[in-house]
Amino acid sequence: AQSVTQLDSQVPVFEEAPVELRCNYSSSVSVYLFWYVQYPNQGLQLLLKYLSGSTLVKGINGFEAEFNKSQTSFHLRKPSVHISDTAEYFCAVSAGGTSYGKLTFGQGTILTVHP
Amino acid sequence: DTAVSQTPKYLVTQMGNDKSIKCEQNLGHDTMYWYKQDSKKFLKIMFSYNNKELIINETVPNRFSPKSPDKAHLNLHINSLELGDSAVYFCASSQDLAGYEQYFGPGTRLTVT
Questions:
Q1: A chain contacts of residue B92, beta-carbon cutoff 8 Å
Q2: Three-state SS annotation for chain B
């Protein structure tokens, strides 16, 4: 079985400051990892994904994430946030075996960027 | 052009009623999904279809019945609505069964009174 834990339910930060949203996963097989963003009253939008290859993945809107297999983590980072980054962020995992094709989401982290 | 669209956006109904939510994607994808997002924003998969064939069927009550008339459409019918069914329901699609990049619709907020 696969699971995802997002370690912070809320992260407040000031504009232009760096931010890190933490995500840990567990799975007994190889995993594929994703970060999605949900703006208020909207659906989810894919920010970035790790399927294979380089462990540092770059996504849209200046976000990046690093896959760390030994620590089973996939933390999301941005060096300088904007007010428009205020949203809820979801980490998700998809694995092989019986979980093939199934995305399991974390509980979400609300990022609030203050002026 | 909206990639994944859902109707209606809001649905308010009474306990015991039957309702449907429609989903359409114009991306040419083979696989479509229904997710439920509860009041705590926890998102959980309910069903997936690939080329009109049911693939994933999580432990969802029998009152929920998905129907896929063609690979561009996946509808969700709910019988005998209960208070606990109140949630936001998202439709999504992906190119294939691997589902590595899923495109989500705007959601349908269902309120059961």
A1: 43-44
A2: CCCEEEECCEEEECCCCCEEEEEEECCCCCEEEEEEECCCCCEEEEEEEECCEEEEECCCCCCEEEEEEECCEEEEEECCCCHHHCEEEEEEEECCCCCCCCEECCCEEEEEC
